[in-house]
Amino acid sequence: MYARVKPMSTVSSTTPISWQSRLVHLLVRARMRPHAYAPINPALVRMLMGRPRAARRWMARVTGATAQLRAAQQGWPGGEIVSWPGHPADAPVLLYLHGGGFIACSPETHRPLVSSLVRRIRGRAFVPRYRLAPEFPFPAALDDAKAAYRYLLDVERIAPAKIVIAGDSAGGGLALSLALAIRDAQWPTPAGIVAFSPWTDLAATGGSLDENSERCAMFAGDTIRRAARFYVGDGDPTSPLMSPLYGDFRGLPPMLVHASEDEVLRDDAIRVAETARRAGVEVELQLWPHVPHVWQFFAGVLPEARASLDATTRFVLAQT
Fold first, then answer.
1. Could you tell me the mean pLDDT of each successive run of 10 residues in the chain, 320 residues long?
2. Cα 102 vs. chain centroid, distance in angstroms?
3. Which of the following is catalytic: 80, 263, 282, 284?
4. pLDDT, tens digit, 9 for 90 and up, residues 116-133
5. Cβ-proximal residues to 278 (8 Å cutoff; 6+ apart), any chain
6. Which of 8, 13, 14, 154 is the most buried (most CB within 10 A)?
7. Catalytic residue among 25, 258, 290, 293
8. What is the pLDDT of residue 59?
9. Residue 251, Cβ density class (10 Å: 0-12 exposed, 13-18 middle, ≥19 buried)
10. Which member of 169, 177, 197, 243 is catalytic?
């Protein structure tokens, strides 16, 4: 559908690893790896994610963006709207789907990352509070994401050419699933898709699950395999709307995919980009060395995070 196809680029070929990246990698590893092989308790994960809260609130404030909680209404599943003060009427709009393995996190935990993007695009982001597994397995999260997109079109009256669907980790996979659902329903097509370290294969067949199991700062391959069961439930993990890797990407808008060379989900990003390319979709894939999963969270201290967000900004502005 889109003639121009960008080759995959590997940031390590041109950019040295910063000392900040080495430090963040060690700190993230110290915090996350002790849990990599432990049984997954969704309630405990929800309690621990987003801490320390004071640091996240500070990171969000320094961006200058403002966040407004919005309760469920007229199809909106609840969540928040993050805005750049005085944004122009024709500014880009992100529909941002947070990560958290489909079992944890929220618009609040992701406010620093979303605020960093909003500051750069000088626009707005709608961050829905989609339902979480295991209480609400597939397709609950996708249904809420679809409702949020319809809300932008029908209630906010935002032109689809101004909307970019974005997300990280599970939210990155959900963004791709949502794009497939929009295409299948013949709804207006968004301007683009952004996926940070997307989880695109809940059947857990990627080679990097084992190859990077000890290199990844956050997870082991077994972490991903065990976490998938909460969202999959009794469903088929190769269903395209659950695992977009197995979908037909024809007719989707341009895509930007960023992932770490060292993370266990590396091959989820590579393979979904290859799937999109084979379908004729314009896609740019970049792999970054020695950064943790969804390193864009650390834009306040990490040059690689700022570079990723700057590249994302250029993509969003070019599409909208």
1. 38 72 94 92 87 58 80 94 94 98 96 96 98 98 98 97 98 98 98 98 98 97 97 97 98 98 98 98 97 96 96 98
2. 12
3. 263
4. 999 999 999 999 999 999
5. 249
6. 8
7. 293
8. 57
9. middle
10. 169
Q: What is the DSSP string of the chain?
A: -----PPPEEGGGT-PPPHHHHHHHHHHHHHHGGGTTSPP-HHHHHHHTT-SHHHHHHHHHTT--EEEEE--BTTB-SEEEEE-TT--TT--EEEEE--STTTS--TTTTHHHHHHHHHHHTSEEEEE----TTTS-TTHHHHHHHHHHHHHHHTS---GGGEEEEEETHHHHHHHHHHHHHHHHTPPPPSEEEEES----TT---THHHHTTTT-SS--HHHHHHHHHHHHTTS-TT-TTTSGGGS--TTPPPEEEEEETTSTTHHHHHHHHHHHHHTT--EEEEEETT--TTGGGGTTT-HHHHHHHHHHHHHHHHH-
Tokens 């770490």 appear where? 260
Q: What is the pLDDT of residue 61?
A: 60
**Is 308 designated active site?**
no
**Taking each helix axis from N to C terminus, what angle separates 303-319 and 111-121, rounded to the nearest 10 degrees?**
50
Is there a catalytic annotation at residue 263? yes
Exposed e or buried b for every residue in 167-177, given b needs 16+ CB within 10 A? bbbbbbbbbbb
**Closest listed residue to residue 291, CA positions, set 19, 8, 43:** 19
Q: Are 103 and 132 in contact (CB under 8 A)?
A: yes
Q: Could you tell me the two tokens for 58?
A: 């500070």
Q: What is the pLDDT of residues 11-46, one digit of tens each?
A: 544 568 999 999 999 999 999 999 999 999 999 999
The phi, psi pair for 10, rounded to 5°, reads -115, 115
**8 A C-beta contact, residue 170 and residue 100:** yes
pLDDT number for residue 210: 98
| Cα 271 to Cα 136: distance, rounded to the nearest angstrom | 27
User: Letter for the amino acid at 235?
Assistant: G
